[in-house]
Write a structure and sequence with these properties.
Radius of gyration: 35 Å
Helix content: over 70%
Oligomer: single chain
Structural class: mainly alpha
Strand content: under 5%
Number of helices: 55
Shape: globular
Number of strands: 3
Strand order of the largest sheet: 1-3-2
Amino acid sequence: RSHFGSSTERQSGKTRSCLVMSAPLFDSASFVALLGQLLSSDNSVRGAAEKQFNDAKAQEPDRVVVSLVACVNPANGADDTARTQAGTLLRRCIISFGGDSVWSRCTPPTRIQVRSAIFQALEHEANGPAQKILIATVSSIADSLEGDDTWPELMPMVLALAKSANVQHQNCALRLLGELLGTNLTARVLEAQQDLGALVNIGLQHPALQGGALALVCEIAKVVEGSALKALQAVLPALESALQAIAATPDFEDALQQLVMCASISPAFFKPRLREWVDVMLKFAAADGAVANGLRSLAFEWVTTAVETKPKAALKAIPDLPVRALDVAFSFMAMVEDDPAWAEVDEQAESDDEDDVLHKSGEQKVDFFVDKLGYDSTKDPLTATVAKYASQASFSAKIAVCTAIRAAAEYVTDDTTLDVFAQYTVSMASDAHMRVRYTALLALGQICHDQDPKFHERWHEQFVPRLVQASEDPVDRVAAMALGALEAMIADLDDAIVTTHADLILKMTVRKLQSSSSTAVLESAMNLLGSMAASMENEFEPYYDQLMPMFLGLVKRTDGAAASPKLRGKSFECVSLLGYAVGKQRFAPAFAQAMQTILAVPLETDETSMLLVDYIRDALERMCKVMGSDFAQFLPNMLPGIYAAIKPGSAVTQAGGEDEQKDDEIAVETENGMMKVNTTQVEEMIAIVHLLAVFIKETGERFYDFVGPTAQAMAGILTGSDEVMYLTSELRDTVYPCWAELVEVTRKAIASRGAEAQAKTVELVQTFVDKVGTDLNAADDPTDIAPMANGIASVVRNAGRGCLQPEQVKVICHMTVSEIGKSFQRDQILKQANAADASRVGRGEDDDEEEEEKDVEGEEEADCRVGLNAIFGACMAADPAVFVQQVWPGLRPTIEQWLAESKGPNRLLALHVAVDVCEQLQEQAVAIWPVFMEVVLTCCTSTDTDERQAAGYVINLASEVPAFAEYAPRAFIALGTSLKKFKAKKNSEESQAAQDNVVAGLANLSLRHPAHSPDLQGCWHKILERMPFKEDTDEGKKTHRKMFMEAQKPSGGNLGSITTLVLVLGYLAEIYGRVEHCDDDLKHDMARSFASLPESTLIQLVGQMTPKQKSRVERIVQDGRTMP
């Protein structure tokens, strides 16, 4: 008799009636045969079976699930494989995809029948995998419950299993209760607190139940908090004993996985006995030979997971944690095989070094512990363990040393330790074992990548010759790594130092390109050459004539290793980088040849060929930036193909009922049914539109004749069906800045094309604002609104004054205020929902992910408001008078409210408005300054990088107005304090951009209001020490132009002294011709100016410059004297 018969029979007879109502679709033997065919290796057999099964699911869902549940019951005779397969398919029928499932289409009587039958199957199932599937199926059904269907008999049936004398049933109950936690029935499970406690206590003592009991405890710990969690902690000692007891059983792996997950979700559960648990897990991790490697890795993973959230508390509780953890990590890193075939392994292959799982895990753990516990706490055990392993003769110990150095290099802050580590890597780079050499070079390159230029300056004289020598290694993998390390070494070296090594490096690199057949070596050599060209720029010219013909030959190759899509693509990349280094005039002949080759490349769509296309696209972008308007000669050949390739409708198709979904397709439920989106095709379109924007921007007015057809092609994206636009929204967002570039072209053409260009500008603006403004007004997703708002702002700003009627300015600004208000409302609703979630009892496994999603949603709303804010600046540019007189009075109270907040996104929003006010209104902004200028000065020293960046930019802009003299003394102090207090982090774009703008502000302040500086020469030292800019290079170019213009004035104008004049001119000489810092106009003007100086004046100025600057000035003068 079934243990569940009595509860089933109490369902008013429903179960008995449904047994008659829903018959299986197939007889038992036929259905088992069909399951076998679904697993067939014969495509035709499997395809026919899939069609039969899918048709049945669509047409008769009730009979399909009844057939499946009949098959899963061992009493019906199916073997283990068939039952497991049937259980898997049954669970898939229950899980909802896009709101629909086979289960949701079944009748209520069938669902009751199936639920009862699953428990009958569980009663008899002894096969582990099949039982696990059945338990997961019950969990899926529980999670699908909604409305009045609460499955009231479920918990009584589970508890009946738990109270059974049958150990197999008890274990099933333990596993099933664990699965139900985190579903819709979590609260009902926790209500059975007394039964749960009894079952756990029994399970932790019984050898056959310990794995299930441990899993249930972990699941409970994930969903309870406060006093409930504290009460549960009483079982921790018994849990430790149970874990140790099952260490030699098959349950051990599952137990470790459960514990790792539990530690990630509820680390506080282990807090009372954290030291004991860490001790247990580290012993498992260190048990080489006694515990399987994968399980050792899992045990170590538990330690890092438990420590991660509160590392300081863990360090306090376990003072010797750094020593013990690093000792285990080093033992992991030394677990490498001495495989002679290693030299032939493809560097990019996913299967590379599969036997080194523990080695890679050890490296990750060194990185983790040095980062989380802090370098100060780990320095001594790290250096001691490095020295210990370095003294050993085995190749594996040396590999452990180099791997640890690579993992920790980012965090080392003292030069002494760093130099010791560097010496180890240099020494081991010439070891007899190829893998030691390789790992040493990898570590050396990582140190160069992670450390600042001072390290490069200390070590380049030792490193460069060693690395050049290592690049000749007979093992190609090692040689390729040496080339990569050499690239990392020179990346942060001053170009004058790179020039001293140029002959040695370039001769070796050319030799490798001409002689090697290794793809890895050729690729690394090309990367190195590209880096050399980018670093040396003008100084690279002597090598240009030797290298460019070689690369032009390589891009034409269609056979051999160099003809592979990747290497051919790298060759195109090198051609463009060489052109970038020498400039437009020198590059022009090679550019024409390269373009002819590019235009002849067949456009294939397979994955390998697309790699070449990606490289070509990047090269085209770079060459277009070098050639500027001269690139336009090739537009007639390229634009038709571009227009044809950006039709979004071709990437979206109707999905058939059972269409096979490709890897690069996603299915989306829409009002008109399921649609398939080819993500690869959409990504390709996005890249093409981005490239098109570069073409428009760089060719400027020469693009004018193509504006009409280009706008028409992009309008096809903006005005497509709502369905297509929804599914390809990222593509739509890419069009906005591209359209703004078109407007810029037509506006600039007004001077030469007159009324025609004026009319075209207005038409472009009106078309865009009408369409996108309407879409924005209807949108409620911040990720849609932000790009739309930025698009409107860019289009209107690029069009300039007169593109909008006064009434349009008012309407757009009022719409913007309204949308900002809606964003705040959505934000408030989100915060209220978060507060409600935080107060609820019990937490599920997905709660951390949900919290992250909510954080992202908050950031999205903030970005949305920033985008909307930009519209204000655009409207100021379109009609300053209307904005000041009719918009600002209504906007001012909101801005004042935002500024009153001590920190947060609203204050930053107000600073962005301040930027636009200063930039667009200029003299008219003086009356508005008092609203925000005090906060601007305060934000110069804000801990928020975005606020510092905005504050620096406001001062930069406001300094142009003479009336800013009132604020100048305090502005000098604020900006100087900011530079002293905050140092830009090498790997942080945000902090670097903030510093760039603070420096730009200080430079302009010094140029426009020098009399108010407390130390003008000191200011210029601070400025020049932090230039050229790393991130905001556009602002850097503007600042360079201002500095040059001031230097042209008698005695250096506001620079204040000949000493400062020499410093500024010397710096400008250093950035001369460097494309990212010096545009063609400044390069031309500098060359003319220096060449026109009287010889005596030139000698006097150059005499006070550095040798590097003197060399640059000689080059500048020569350029100026040879200009037509």
